[in-house]
Design goal:
The structure holds 2 protein chains of 2 kinds. Chain A is of the alpha/beta class. Chain A contains 3 helices and 5 strands, in the order βαβαββαβ. Chain A has a 3-stranded parallel sheet, covered by helices on one side. The chains are: A alpha/beta, B alpha/beta.
């Protein structure tokens, strides 16, 4: 079960080698994204995740906001 | 959207998954680094002067007056994080030296986040004029104060 985390935990996990995934569409990604994040739009997640992400490392998902 | 993605990743075999609940707007709103076209526009984070004078809530009118320098306001902040509690305009500092700032400050002044663009803020100021714009993180931590003239100039330079 995925764990809900805040920005402090995000920073800690990134420091420990986690992967941060932005699942927004391309236009949103082009507008702004967190430095170091990987762009995997939700609609292509299943297709791209196996080749773009390392399953041995933690993965953090992120979108626009909490809504 | 990100909770669905986290669950989907688990189903794909990623066993150590997390959902950043606040996501991008929480990150950017806290002044943390980001990229993209928004980052290339003049924003409050780049227009705010961090050297605005500050005082603690237990200090006095005399303390605030001594730090004004060229400024016409001081912010009342708490703790090492400088969380903004109030604002004191220079006019209020004509009171007796020993008057506690807590009694003269404007409680809970309006604050804006660092990612707000000059263009957005300029439009906002045209609708709701203000002598200065206090910029804080989502947590209330003071980043600085931006002047309307600087905001309007930056907006014009950006086509606003």
């Amino acid at each position: 079960m995925p764990t809900d985390i805040d920005r402090h935990e995000v920073q800690r996990l990134l420091g420990a080698g986690a992967q941060l995934v932005d699942v927004m569409p391309k236009a949103e990604w082009d507008h702004s994204h967190i430095v170091g994040s990987v762009h995997l739009p939700l609609k292509k997640l299943a297709e791209l995740a196996p080749e773009r992400l390392d399953p041995s490392r933690a993965v953090i998902t992120s979108c626009y906001d909490s809504l | 959207m990100s909770p669905r993605a986290a669950w989907r990743l688990e189903r794909l075999g990623f066993t150590d998954t997390y959902d950043y609940v606040g996501s991008k707007m929480d990150w950017i709103g806290d002044g943390l680094p980001f990229e993209g076209t928004l980052a290339e526009q003049p924003r409050l984070s780049t227009l705010a002067d961090p050297d605005v004078p500050t005082c603690g809530i237990d200090e006095t009118v005399a303390d605030a007056r001594s730090r004004l320098g060229q400024w016409d306001l001081t912010l009342v902040v708490a703790g090492p994080q400088r969380v903004v509690l109030g604002l004191v305009r220079a006019e209020a500092l004509g009171l007796e030296d020993t008057r506690p700032l807590v009694g003269v400050m404007q409680e809970g002044p309006s604050t804006y986040r660092p990612h707000v663009t000059a263009e957005e803020m300029s439009k906002n100021l045209k609708n709701r004029p203000a002598p200065y714009v206090v910029v804080t993180t989502l947590s209330g931590q003071l980043l600085g104060v931006a002047r309307p003239d600087a905001i309007h100039a930056a907006a014009r330079g950006n086509g606003g």
